[in-house]
Amino acid sequence: MRIDGKGLVDRSAPVRFTFDGVAYEGFRGDTVASALLANGVRVVGRSFKYHRPRGVLTAGSEEPNALVEVIEVGQQTPNVRATVQEIFPGLEVKSQNRWPSLKYDVMAVNDMLSPFLSAGFYYKTFMWPRKFWERVYEPIIRRAAGLGSLSGRHDEADYEKAFAFCDLLVIGAGPAGLMAAVQGARAGVDVILADENPVMGGRLLADGGEIDGRPASVWVAEVLAELEAAPNVRLMVRTSVTGAYDGGTFSALERVGLHVAARANLPRECFWRIVAGQTVLAAGALERSIAFADNDRPGVMMASSLRAYVNRYGVSPGKRVTIFANNDDARLSARALMAAGVDVAAIVDTRADASTLEDCPVYAGAEVVGTKGRHGLSAITVRHRGGEMQIETDCLGVSGGWNPLVHLTCHMNGRPVWDADLAAFVPVAGAVPGLHAAGACAGVFSTQGCLADGARVAVLALGVLGRAVRAVDAPVAEDAPYAVLPLWEVKGKGRAWLDFANDVTTKDVRLAAQENFASVEHMKRYTTQGMAPDQGKNSNVGALAVLADATGRSIAQTGTTTYRAPFSPVSIAAMGAGGRGAGFAPQRFMTSHGASVDRRAPMVEAGLWYRPSYFPKGAETTWREACDREVVMVREAVGVCDVSTLGKIDIQGADAARFLDLVYTNVFSTLPVGRVRYGLMLRADGHVLDDGTTARLGENHYLMTTTTAAAGLVMRHLDFVQQAYCGDWDVRFVSVTENWAQFAVAGPRARALLASLVSVDLPFMGCSRVEFGGVGARVFRISFSGEEGYEIAVPSRYGEALFRDLVARAETLGGGPYGMEALNVLRIEKGFITHAEIDGRTTAFDIGLAGMISARKDCIGKAAAGRSGLTGAARLQMVGLRPVMQAAITAGAHLFTPGDEVRRENDQGYVTSVGYSPMMEGYLGLAFLRDGRARIGEMVRLVDHLRDIDVLCEVCDPVFHDKEGVKLRG
Amino acid sequence: MGNLIAKRPLGVDPVGHGDLVLAEVDLGRVTSVAPFAGADVARVLKPLVFPAPGVVSSKGDARLVWTGRGQAFLFGAVPEGLGAVAALSDQSDGWAGLSLTGTGAVDVLARLVPLDLRALVPGQCARTTLGHMPLILIAVFGGFEVLVFRSMARSAWHEVEQALRMWGARAQC
Amino acid sequence: MRITCPLCGPRDRREFYYYGSEDYLTQPEVGDLDAVDAQLHLRDNVAGRVRDVWYHEAGCASWLVVTRDTVSHAVEKVELVANVKGILAKTKLKGGAA
């Protein structure tokens, strides 16, 4: 019911939206909840377990009941809080947890079965037969329970992530937060004021009191005008600060585009990481309920929300309202309603000594013991000194007192302490370094107190920032003491709800205690109290009070459960903003990418790089046909392959040679200028880190090559060795990977191809600078294929041109490009390792390169490599494998001694790489086999249960092709 | 053989919103400079100075940009004799340059860079990340130069462009 | 979590790579296998003050010794590995072919 002349919504801007297909009208500034209440809609959803009809309970982000689905094109967002979702033209909202309709819900039968559905019933009921667990019970339970539903489609909308920095972060823009922000603004520090609401002002707008004799909203407007005009202040509305982290870092979720119709490029949400020098937490407090029989009927609401609906939205949630409270604060709601002309039928105050001076009947020392009304409240039963009576009412505002929002103060392991006077948990100072609670979240409940406390705490925070300022004078406002008589539940027959979202009743909590789930953390998990999207914001304290009562402990002894981030729900899409599809990881493209794609090469990921898998030709229909052809092409003619992804590190300085001797197992100081050497690098723990070739370009100038996979790793390692062990050596290095495009030209006609380009005569493992039409290039005579091979490097800008040129030249010689598949087969035939073999668990001894650890010098990892257990017959050693029959073998397969049972205990090793060799006309594998080198010539049984392979293989030397290296040396 | 054709890392046209423009920039000649121990680079570098962390030394078009521990990138011609006192490596083709200038440059990059970009003023630079990409960020008048690995240029462009589009849509909201 | 790099200033944890105890800054000597084992693997795992080696991977490429409290998460001190005194003295290094 809309009240004329009240509220801050824009009466000149009507907004039409639909709820369950029915069109309704609200005003700009309305939430779904306020607009539905204005239209007299009371039932907005069905509850989680019992499918009871539920209405709006609160006016804020803590709402446990009014969870709805928002439907957009391609989107369906469940569990949206109707109290948070702003309406906009065309907004489509659906109730959830009901079928076929909100009014007639089949699953409401659960409510009849409630005696059997108490806490823990899953564990007790669905015990046997065991085979029903996953196939029968779980699907049934999943369908019956659950909150809301998803579209089942990918979320194609835009989301954002962003970083922000400030000196002073103020969380919450109520009286305390606004004062703190003003204090910061005037001190000239860099301020961010964040508030979860679309309009700042917090309870000043909801309570509708006066400040300095004028409406509070006027004061709020003036303060906001000052803050908006201040260049050092950023106001972040619709932004919930959701977590406190180390180093003054906070997470926050901004609802960017959720209050307007979807539009291109407008993000739905932004996930902020805010780094603050100091923080004032002015999050306020939340009203808590009192549990009594059937307190979940639509129309039963939080007392403070009633005045929020009146003052902010100009809506009365009922026509004949009653109030049930244990404190003075709830009187404000009664007065606000009466002032707005709403009939207040009664105030039921639990306190015997409560004032009865109101313009409505007040029952002191009374309690609400029951409610009536099928689809919404129609009457309450009140027990007072004279007995029980019924009061007809369609809306009951309940207040059990206020709980400071201590959440963020507890995100770094802090626990709040119980304040007996306030009957509430209050934060402990210093629980989060640099975060100071102010106002209601610190247990200061009067408006005047909050205004003054906001200024006081901001002065404190500014002092830490080195700004000594005086607190600005707080304006005059309501300053009534907070008087509360704790009452958590009205005992009696019937179910009394604590957690509305998860349908947890006082009976469930008592059952938990009875079954010895008496710790608050156990009770929580047994009953699911506080585990719904609202995280029990207005029910947790009540539940633990009931638990305290049931276990005979005090509330302080019972303690709270752990407060964890996020404070309010954060969509994974926002946290992962930008990470969808190609945004998942950077894509690295070689200069030849376009040329390879032109040749229809499927590009495969190699780390972040994209490399051609193979180059299909003519009538080839499978990758194997192309791969086999490319292998033969390299072996018999010439192939061209882009190897730019290999890491290249330029190393210079008088101590460069000495440095390489330290990081490599073998000696590089003796390498002549103009020559290349293969090197092996160990980690400190003696295992192989990486391998690659290093060229000596000058006396004090080397160019190191790393594997593609370990390029970053090696750079990090070199930095470590240099900075930790030889900071005073004259050695400088820098990555030049990206600066050079490098192509392998391999095969018996490689020399002919090179000769057509440039006149250079290189010995095996030689290198030289050359020029191609004015472009400085480098040529290395190295090979990863076992054929005579060259690698030609040019500055990257010329990479594509050179690749196309080399491929064209190769084609005139009967060759062409080859991809990763062929490269892999070629190196397996030659027994060359990759990170499939040096996977971090293998030693130089294992791969047969123990001889590369120079005896003449020390090197990183040498000491550790000498440990027992890293060498010897017990080690798995690298060998070659050939199946005895024409059969496929697989990497990942395990090896067994023929005759042994295939069991883990008998495992003899595993296969790391396989490929089909067209030259050998059969599969070849590289494997690690226990005492492998001594078993060459023997048989092993290769078993791959996943791919159903069981083949006898002959153990061979890992070098299958050109063992003497004749072809390599030309 | 004939002349090899040089290609830009991206070869894309500028995009923008209002006066905010994202464009590919030609970095020209880039050389990494790492002074050798005890060497007197100051004499050779004059009028440039080897920059302190986060600093850009510039004179005319020549710039010496700090890029890491004991390392700077020289944009422009290499002074005579520098190779004797510092390790020099050509980086002209290793990095792709984007520029983002105009109103909102700070806000757009704040989507991707975990630094307080308001504090980065012309004459300053930073090594950090752009999303998951290594980044050399140089503050210039009215905005930034964004240097990423050449191979990652497309991803970088895509991410900045997307941030720019979303920022533009926000501005209209 | 934030770490103040001595060269780059305060930075987000995402820019750093964590290696492990500062014990790694000492090179074990060839031959003393117990010392090698201890240096590589034996850690006190204290709840409290630790000194660990981190790498400013996405920044200036400095290796750092970060003194940090594993209980409060407070970062007490950040030093450049290259500047940490005594490391070179402790490390009897015989690199090079000579």
UniProtKB/TrEMBL annotation, chain A:
Keyword annotations from UniProtKB, A to Z: Oxidoreductase
UniProt record similarity statement: Belongs to the GcvT family.
InterPro entries, sorted: 2Fe-2S-bd_N (IPR042204), BFD-like_2Fe2S-bd_dom_sf (IPR041854), FAD/NAD-bd_sf (IPR036188), GcvT/YgfZ/DmdA (IPR028896), GcvT/YgfZ_C (IPR029043), GcvT_C (IPR013977), GCVT_N (IPR006222), Sarcosine_oxidase_asu (IPR006277)
One GO term (biological process): tetrahydrofolate metabolic process
Domain GCVT N-terminal per the UniProt entry, residue ranges: 595-857
Keyword Cytoplasm: no
Domain of life where this protein originates: Bacteria
Domain Aminomethyltransferase C-terminal: from-to ranges: 892-962
Molecular-function annotations in GO: sarcosine oxidase activity
Lineage: Bacteria, Pseudomonadati, Pseudomonadota, Alphaproteobacteria, Rhodobacterales
Domain SoxA A3: 493-578
Positions in coiled-coil regions: none
UniProt name for this protein: Sarcosine oxidase subunit alpha
TrEMBL record, chain B:
Name assigned to this protein: Sarcosine oxidase subunit gamma
Entries under SUPFAM superfamilies matching the protein: Folate-binding domain
Top-level division of the source organism's lineage: Bacteria
Origin species: Pseudorhodobacter antarcticus
From TrEMBL, chain C:
Pfam families for this protein: SoxD
GO MF annotation terms: sarcosine oxidase activity
GO biological process: tetrahydrofolate metabolic process
UniProt-listed InterPro entries: SoxD (IPR006279), SoxD_sf (IPR038561)
Protein name as annotated: Sarcosine oxidase subunit delta
Species this protein is from: Pseudorhodobacter antarcticus
Organism lineage string: Bacteria, Pseudomonadati, Pseudomonadota, Alphaproteobacteria, Rhodobacterales
